Amino acid sequence: MTADQRLVEIATAFETVDLRFLVMGGHAVRFYGVNRDTLDFDFHLSLAARDGLAESLQRTGLFGVAGPTELTSWRGTDFRRFLLGHLPNGKEEWLEFWFHNHLLAPFEELYARREQGAVLGQQLPFMALADLIRSKETERESDWQDVSLLEEIQDNRLLAKARETERQIAALAGLRSRRGYRSAEALGLFQNPPVVTQALESARNPITKALLLPLIPAASDACALGLPDIISRPLRQ
Q1: Domain range for residue 61?
Q2: In terms of domains, do 180 and 214 share one?
Q3: Same domain, 36 and 94
Q4: Is residue 110 part of a domain?
Q5: What angle do CA 34, 88, 15 make, to 5 degrees?
Q6: Is residue 131 located within the same domain as residue 159?
Q7: Strands 40-44 and 92-98
Q8: What's the CA angle centered on 173, arms 168 and 174, to 5 degrees?
Q9: What are the tens digits of pLDDT across the range 121-168?
């Protein structure tokens, strides 16, 4: 069974017990276009699903008669992890569930922003790209490698829509990668100072501000908010 087949099997089982979920982690990374291998199936659930999760999983039929085996987590009630099974090579498969993550908004807000995507003909709810990137901003090097690639994908998506002025501002205000910067430059988006200025004023991420500030060195101090002087001062020169 392929990873996609297994993901669809799990998602279908969740739906039989009315378990709302968002696919996150490595399988979401792969959905957005990054070649990522993982043995874990990561999902975000609502807080309401937390206490009765083991019973819900038992009713899915994924675990057989023995029922799900849970591993104690140091993350407390924010996270639960269950052994799903073993692959032919003996490696373990895990189901991992987040209920609260300090990097992310509450589940209902995330679910409203979800991206529906087809996997083997079945529509699955994936965590939105921007939220997935945020969820990866951890202390693990592998997560930051994912972030780097996902940021390029996000930039490409925004720039592909940047035909009207409003969308150009939005694309530049969300710029996160060097490749995205070069693409925006090739499209001539930096040739319009008012657009760049509005994008800089709208930007929230310090990376975006650091990319745009050298283009508008006379921008107000408010535009550089969040950037230390030791960084912003040279960018204005």
Answers
A1: 3-135
A2: yes
A3: yes
A4: yes
A5: 60
A6: no
A7: parallel
A8: 100
A9: 999 999 999 999 999 998 888 889 999 999 999 999 999 999 999 999
